[in-house]
Protein backbone atom coordinates (compact mmCIF):
# COMPACT_ATOMS: atom_id res chain seq x y z
CA UNK A 1 0.00 0.00 0.00
CA UNK A 2 1.43 3.41 -1.00
CA UNK A 3 0.96 5.97 1.76
CA UNK A 4 2.11 9.39 2.93
CA UNK A 5 3.61 12.04 0.68
CA UNK A 6 3.97 9.78 -2.38
CA UNK A 7 0.27 8.85 -2.23
CA UNK A 8 -0.74 12.49 -1.88
CA UNK A 9 1.38 13.49 -4.90
CA UNK A 10 -0.05 10.68 -7.03
CA UNK A 11 -3.60 11.62 -6.09
CA UNK A 12 -3.06 15.25 -7.07
CA UNK A 13 -1.68 14.17 -10.44
CA UNK A 14 -4.62 11.84 -11.02
CA UNK A 15 -6.94 14.65 -9.87
CA UNK A 16 -9.25 12.54 -7.78
CA UNK A 17 -9.39 11.96 -4.06
CA UNK A 18 -10.17 9.58 -1.24
CA UNK A 19 -12.46 11.15 1.37
CA UNK A 20 -13.27 9.61 4.74
CA UNK A 21 -16.31 10.63 6.79
CA UNK A 22 -16.06 9.66 10.46
CA UNK A 23 -19.47 9.55 12.09
CA UNK A 24 -21.06 8.71 8.75
CA UNK A 25 -24.17 7.02 10.21
CA UNK A 26 -25.11 10.07 12.27
CA UNK A 27 -27.48 12.96 11.70
CA UNK A 28 -24.82 15.06 9.97
CA UNK A 29 -22.80 12.16 8.58
CA UNK A 30 -25.55 10.63 6.45
CA UNK A 31 -26.59 13.72 4.46
CA UNK A 32 -22.95 14.82 4.25
CA UNK A 33 -22.00 11.42 2.82
CA UNK A 34 -24.78 11.71 0.25
CA UNK A 35 -23.47 15.11 -0.83
CA UNK A 36 -19.91 13.79 -1.06
CA UNK A 37 -21.14 10.80 -3.10
CA UNK A 38 -22.32 13.35 -5.63
CA UNK A 39 -19.05 15.33 -5.66
CA UNK A 40 -17.16 14.84 -8.93
CA UNK A 41 -13.80 15.44 -7.23
CA UNK A 42 -14.24 12.31 -5.09
CA UNK A 43 -13.27 8.88 -6.40
CA UNK A 44 -13.52 6.86 -3.19
CA UNK A 45 -15.79 7.65 -0.24
CA UNK A 46 -14.98 5.83 2.99
CA UNK A 47 -17.57 5.76 5.78
CA UNK A 48 -16.84 5.01 9.43
CA UNK A 49 -19.01 4.86 12.53
CA UNK A 50 -19.44 2.78 15.66
CA UNK A 51 -22.59 1.07 14.31
CA UNK A 52 -25.08 0.97 11.42
CA UNK A 53 -22.63 2.30 8.85
CA UNK A 54 -22.73 -0.75 6.55
CA UNK A 55 -26.37 -0.01 5.79
CA UNK A 56 -25.60 3.62 4.99
CA UNK A 57 -22.85 2.49 2.61
CA UNK A 58 -25.15 -0.02 0.92
CA UNK A 59 -27.79 2.66 0.46
CA UNK A 60 -25.33 5.16 -0.96
CA UNK A 61 -23.83 2.56 -3.29
CA UNK A 62 -27.12 2.59 -5.22
CA UNK A 63 -26.74 6.30 -6.02
CA UNK A 64 -25.75 6.62 -9.68
CA UNK A 65 -22.35 8.31 -9.52
CA UNK A 66 -18.84 7.01 -10.14
CA UNK A 67 -17.81 7.34 -6.49
CA UNK A 68 -16.89 3.99 -4.91
CA UNK A 69 -18.16 3.56 -1.33
CA UNK A 70 -16.55 1.53 1.48
CA UNK A 71 -17.53 1.22 5.14
CA UNK A 72 -15.74 0.36 8.36
CA UNK A 73 -17.18 -0.13 11.84
CA UNK A 74 -15.84 0.44 15.33
CA UNK A 75 -12.53 1.40 16.89
CA UNK A 76 -10.79 -1.71 15.56
CA UNK A 77 -11.41 -0.58 11.95
CA UNK A 78 -10.65 3.12 12.39
CA UNK A 79 -7.11 2.74 11.04
CA UNK A 80 -8.35 1.13 7.83
CA UNK A 81 -10.98 3.84 7.43
CA UNK A 82 -8.50 6.72 7.44
CA UNK A 83 -5.58 4.97 5.73
CA UNK A 84 -4.21 7.06 2.85
CA UNK A 85 -7.15 9.49 2.90
CA UNK A 86 -6.68 12.88 1.27
CA UNK A 87 -9.43 14.46 3.36
CA UNK A 88 -10.91 13.25 6.64
CA UNK A 89 -14.14 14.91 7.80
CA UNK A 90 -14.90 14.25 11.47
CA UNK A 91 -18.59 14.54 12.40
CA UNK A 92 -18.62 11.86 15.13
CA UNK A 93 -19.90 12.67 18.60
CA UNK A 94 -23.14 13.52 20.38
CA UNK A 95 -25.33 16.44 19.40
CA UNK A 96 -25.98 19.24 21.84
CA UNK A 97 -29.23 18.83 23.74
CA UNK A 98 -31.42 21.56 25.29
CA UNK A 99 -29.75 22.93 28.43
CA UNK A 100 -26.42 21.27 27.63
CA UNK A 101 -23.42 23.59 27.93
CA UNK A 102 -20.59 23.45 25.41
CA UNK A 103 -18.25 22.52 28.26
CA UNK A 104 -20.35 19.42 28.96
CA UNK A 105 -20.43 18.64 25.25
CA UNK A 106 -16.64 18.91 25.10
CA UNK A 107 -16.14 16.33 27.83
CA UNK A 108 -18.14 13.81 25.81
CA UNK A 109 -16.85 14.56 22.32
CA UNK A 110 -13.17 15.10 23.08
CA UNK A 111 -12.61 11.39 23.63
CA UNK A 112 -14.35 10.54 20.35
CA UNK A 113 -12.32 12.95 18.26
CA UNK A 114 -9.00 12.19 19.94
CA UNK A 115 -9.24 8.55 18.84
CA UNK A 116 -9.77 9.61 15.25
CA UNK A 117 -6.87 12.07 15.36
CA UNK A 118 -4.49 9.42 16.67
CA UNK A 119 -5.47 7.09 13.82
CA UNK A 120 -4.99 9.85 11.25
CA UNK A 121 -1.56 10.67 12.67
CA UNK A 122 -0.48 7.07 12.20
CA UNK A 123 -2.13 6.18 8.91
CA UNK A 124 -2.97 9.41 7.02
CA UNK A 125 -0.44 11.98 8.18
CA UNK A 126 -0.75 14.05 4.99
CA UNK A 127 -4.54 14.23 5.03
CA UNK A 128 -6.47 17.45 5.38
CA UNK A 129 -8.55 17.22 8.57
CA UNK A 130 -11.90 19.02 8.75
CA UNK A 131 -13.48 18.92 12.22
CA UNK A 132 -17.24 19.38 12.39
CA UNK A 133 -17.71 17.89 15.87
CA UNK A 134 -18.61 20.49 18.48
CA UNK A 135 -17.46 22.38 20.42
CA UNK A 136 -15.11 23.32 17.58
CA UNK A 137 -13.49 26.13 19.60
CA UNK A 138 -11.94 23.58 21.98
CA UNK A 139 -11.82 20.42 19.84
CA UNK A 140 -9.50 21.90 17.18
CA UNK A 141 -6.78 23.03 19.65
CA UNK A 142 -7.05 19.62 21.32
CA UNK A 143 -6.55 17.87 17.98
CA UNK A 144 -3.53 20.04 17.21
CA UNK A 145 -1.91 19.08 20.52
CA UNK A 146 -2.30 15.37 19.78
CA UNK A 147 -0.71 15.91 16.37
CA UNK A 148 2.13 17.89 17.95
CA UNK A 149 2.91 14.93 20.23
CA UNK A 150 3.63 12.92 17.06
CA UNK A 151 5.51 15.85 15.45
CA UNK A 152 2.87 15.84 12.70
CA UNK A 153 1.03 19.11 13.24
CA UNK A 154 0.78 21.14 10.03
CA UNK A 155 -1.29 24.31 10.61
CA UNK A 156 -2.17 24.39 6.91
CA UNK A 157 -4.03 21.07 7.15
CA UNK A 158 -6.23 21.25 10.27
CA UNK A 159 -9.59 23.04 10.12
CA UNK A 160 -12.56 23.70 12.33
CA UNK A 161 -15.55 23.89 10.01
CA UNK A 162 -17.41 27.14 10.69
CA UNK A 163 -19.09 27.32 7.29
CA UNK A 164 -22.55 26.94 8.83
CA UNK A 165 -22.12 30.42 10.33
CA UNK A 166 -21.47 31.79 6.83
CA UNK A 167 -24.42 29.86 5.41
CA UNK A 168 -26.70 31.28 8.09
CA UNK A 169 -25.37 34.80 7.59
CA UNK A 170 -25.91 34.60 3.84
CA UNK A 171 -29.39 33.16 4.31
CA UNK A 172 -30.62 35.54 7.03
CA UNK A 173 -29.17 38.62 5.35
CA UNK A 174 -30.46 37.54 1.96
CA UNK A 175 -33.95 37.03 3.35
CA UNK A 176 -33.84 40.38 5.15
CA UNK A 177 -32.63 42.29 2.06
CA UNK A 178 -34.81 40.26 -0.35
CA UNK A 179 -31.69 39.03 -2.18
CA UNK A 180 -30.84 35.52 -3.33
CA UNK A 181 -28.63 34.17 -0.48
CA UNK A 182 -26.28 32.70 -3.10
CA UNK A 183 -25.48 36.27 -4.15
CA UNK A 184 -24.69 37.44 -0.61
CA UNK A 185 -21.08 37.56 0.58
CA UNK A 186 -20.25 38.30 4.21
CA UNK A 187 -17.20 37.23 6.23
CA UNK A 188 -17.88 35.52 9.55
CA UNK A 189 -14.80 35.44 11.75
CA UNK A 190 -13.86 34.36 15.29
CA UNK A 191 -15.07 31.01 16.56
CA UNK A 192 -18.06 28.73 16.30
CA UNK A 193 -20.17 29.37 19.40
CA UNK A 194 -22.32 32.25 20.63
CA UNK A 195 -20.50 35.57 21.02
CA UNK A 196 -17.34 34.16 19.41
CA UNK A 197 -19.18 34.16 16.06
CA UNK A 198 -18.60 37.56 14.44
CA UNK A 199 -20.55 38.31 11.23
CA UNK A 200 -18.83 41.34 9.68
CA UNK A 201 -21.94 42.91 8.24
CA UNK A 202 -20.13 46.17 7.49
CA UNK A 203 -18.38 44.23 4.69
CA UNK A 204 -21.52 42.53 3.36
CA UNK A 205 -22.03 42.47 -0.39
CA UNK A 206 -24.52 43.71 -1.43
CA UNK A 207 -24.23 46.47 1.13
CA UNK A 208 -26.42 46.29 4.23
CA UNK A 209 -28.11 49.68 4.62
CA UNK A 210 -30.55 49.21 7.49
CA UNK A 211 -30.29 50.62 11.02
CA UNK A 212 -28.15 49.44 13.93
CA UNK A 213 -31.05 47.78 15.73
CA UNK A 214 -31.74 45.53 12.74
CA UNK A 215 -28.05 44.72 12.39
CA UNK A 216 -27.74 43.72 16.03
CA UNK A 217 -30.81 41.50 15.75
CA UNK A 218 -29.34 39.75 12.70
CA UNK A 219 -25.98 39.27 14.42
CA UNK A 220 -27.69 37.70 17.41
CA UNK A 221 -29.75 35.39 15.21
CA UNK A 222 -26.63 34.23 13.36
CA UNK A 223 -24.83 33.65 16.66
CA UNK A 224 -27.71 31.73 18.21
CA UNK A 225 -28.89 29.90 15.10
CA UNK A 226 -28.00 26.53 16.60
CA UNK A 227 -30.29 27.12 19.57
CA UNK A 228 -33.09 28.03 17.18
CA UNK A 229 -32.85 24.62 15.52
CA UNK A 230 -32.45 22.67 18.78
CA UNK A 231 -35.59 24.34 20.14
CA UNK A 232 -37.57 23.75 16.94
CA UNK A 233 -36.65 20.05 17.01
CA UNK A 234 -37.89 19.87 20.61
CA UNK A 235 -34.77 18.23 21.95
CA UNK A 236 -34.73 15.50 19.30
CA UNK A 237 -31.81 16.85 17.30
CA UNK A 238 -29.68 19.79 16.32
CA UNK A 239 -28.64 21.40 13.04
CA UNK A 240 -27.89 18.37 10.88
CA UNK A 241 -29.05 19.09 7.33
CA UNK A 242 -27.73 22.66 7.25
CA UNK A 243 -24.47 21.51 8.85
CA UNK A 244 -24.10 18.76 6.25
CA UNK A 245 -24.69 21.29 3.47
CA UNK A 246 -22.12 23.66 4.96
CA UNK A 247 -19.56 20.88 5.52
CA UNK A 248 -19.93 19.66 1.93
CA UNK A 249 -19.41 23.20 0.67
CA UNK A 250 -16.23 23.55 2.73
CA UNK A 251 -14.98 20.10 1.69
CA UNK A 252 -15.47 21.01 -1.96
CA UNK A 253 -13.32 24.13 -1.51
CA UNK A 254 -10.56 22.02 0.07
CA UNK A 255 -10.71 19.46 -2.74
CA UNK A 256 -10.57 22.17 -5.41
CA UNK A 257 -7.45 23.49 -3.70
CA UNK A 258 -5.91 20.02 -3.61
CA UNK A 259 -6.63 19.66 -7.28
CA UNK A 260 -4.82 22.91 -8.01
CA UNK A 261 -7.95 24.67 -9.23
CA UNK A 262 -9.20 28.04 -8.07
CA UNK A 263 -11.22 27.45 -4.91
CA UNK A 264 -13.68 29.89 -3.33
CA UNK A 265 -12.45 31.75 -0.27
CA UNK A 266 -14.04 30.30 2.87
CA UNK A 267 -13.71 31.13 6.55
CA UNK A 268 -12.52 28.40 8.92
CA UNK A 269 -11.20 28.10 12.48
CA UNK A 270 -7.46 27.45 12.26
CA UNK A 271 -4.14 27.94 14.00
CA UNK A 272 -3.50 31.63 13.55
CA UNK A 273 -1.36 34.64 14.49
CA UNK A 274 -3.96 37.12 13.26
CA UNK A 275 -5.12 37.96 16.79
CA UNK A 276 -3.83 37.44 20.33
CA UNK A 277 -5.44 33.98 20.52
CA UNK A 278 -3.80 31.04 18.77
CA UNK A 279 -6.91 29.77 16.94
CA UNK A 280 -9.24 32.04 15.03
CA UNK A 281 -11.53 31.90 11.98
CA UNK A 282 -10.75 34.23 9.08
CA UNK A 283 -11.14 34.08 5.29
CA UNK A 284 -8.77 31.53 3.73
CA UNK A 285 -7.58 30.52 0.27
CA UNK A 286 -6.71 26.87 -0.42
CA UNK A 287 -4.12 25.07 -2.50
CA UNK A 288 -2.46 21.64 -2.88
CA UNK A 289 -1.07 21.77 0.68
CA UNK A 290 -4.17 23.08 2.41
CA UNK A 291 -4.18 26.74 3.42
CA UNK A 292 -2.50 28.79 0.72
CA UNK A 293 -3.22 32.20 2.24
CA UNK A 294 -4.82 33.51 5.42
CA UNK A 295 -6.43 36.80 4.44
CA UNK A 296 -6.54 38.04 8.04
CA UNK A 297 -9.07 40.35 9.60
CA UNK A 298 -11.45 42.20 7.30
CA UNK A 299 -11.98 45.91 8.06
CA UNK A 300 -14.05 46.31 11.25
CA UNK A 301 -16.19 49.21 12.40
CA UNK A 302 -16.44 50.22 16.07
CA UNK A 303 -19.35 47.85 16.80
CA UNK A 304 -17.49 44.90 15.29
CA UNK A 305 -14.25 45.83 17.07
CA UNK A 306 -16.10 45.67 20.39
CA UNK A 307 -17.48 42.28 19.38
CA UNK A 308 -13.98 41.08 18.56
CA UNK A 309 -12.67 41.97 22.00
CA UNK A 310 -15.53 40.05 23.60
CA UNK A 311 -14.99 37.05 21.34
CA UNK A 312 -11.28 36.83 22.13
CA UNK A 313 -11.99 36.35 25.84
CA UNK A 314 -14.36 33.46 25.17
CA UNK A 315 -12.03 31.85 22.67
CA UNK A 316 -9.03 31.94 25.00
CA UNK A 317 -10.83 29.83 27.61
CA UNK A 318 -12.01 27.27 25.05
CA UNK A 319 -8.52 26.99 23.57
CA UNK A 320 -7.02 26.41 27.00
CA UNK A 321 -9.61 23.72 27.72
CA UNK A 322 -8.69 21.88 24.53
CA UNK A 323 -4.95 22.10 25.14
CA UNK A 324 -5.30 21.00 28.76
CA UNK A 325 -7.33 17.94 27.76
CA UNK A 326 -4.67 16.81 25.30
CA UNK A 327 -1.87 17.32 27.77
CA UNK A 328 -3.66 15.14 30.33
CA UNK A 329 -4.43 12.24 27.96
TrEMBL record:
* Keywords for the protein's UniProt record, in alphabetical order: NAD, Oxidoreductase, Tricarboxylic acid cycle
Binding positions for NAD(+) per the UniProt entry? 23-29, 49, 109, 132-134, 243
Relate the assembly described in the record: Homodimer.
Protein species of origin: Drosophila albomicans
Question: Has keyword Acetylation?
Answer: no
Is NAD found in the keyword set?
yes
Q: Which residues are noted in the entry as substrate-binding? A: 96, 102, 134, 168
SUPFAM superfamilies tied to this protein: LDH C-terminal domain-like, NAD(P)-binding Rossmann-fold domains
Residue ranges of the Lactate/malate dehydrogenase C-terminal domain?
Answer: 162-325
User: What is the name of this protein?
Assistant: Malate dehydrogenase
PANTHER family per the UniProt record, alphabetical: MALATE AND LACTATE DEHYDROGENASE, MALATE DEHYDROGENASE, MITOCHONDRIAL
Task: Quote the catalytic activity from the record.
Answer: (S)-malate + NAD(+) = oxaloacetate + NADH + H(+)
What is the active site of this protein? 192 (proton acceptor)
What GO annotations for molecular function exist for this entry?
L-malate dehydrogenase (NAD+) activity
Transmembrane portions of the chain:
none
Any one biological process term the GO annotation gives: malate metabolic process
Source superkingdom: Eukaryota
Q: Which family does it belong to?
A: Belongs to the LDH/MDH superfamily. MDH type 1 family.
Give the EC number(s) under which this enzyme is classified: 1.1.1.37
Mention any one GO cellular component term assigned to this protein in its UniProt record. Answer: mitochondrion
The taxonomic lineage of its organism, from the top, reads: Eukaryota, Metazoa, Ecdysozoa, Arthropoda, Hexapoda
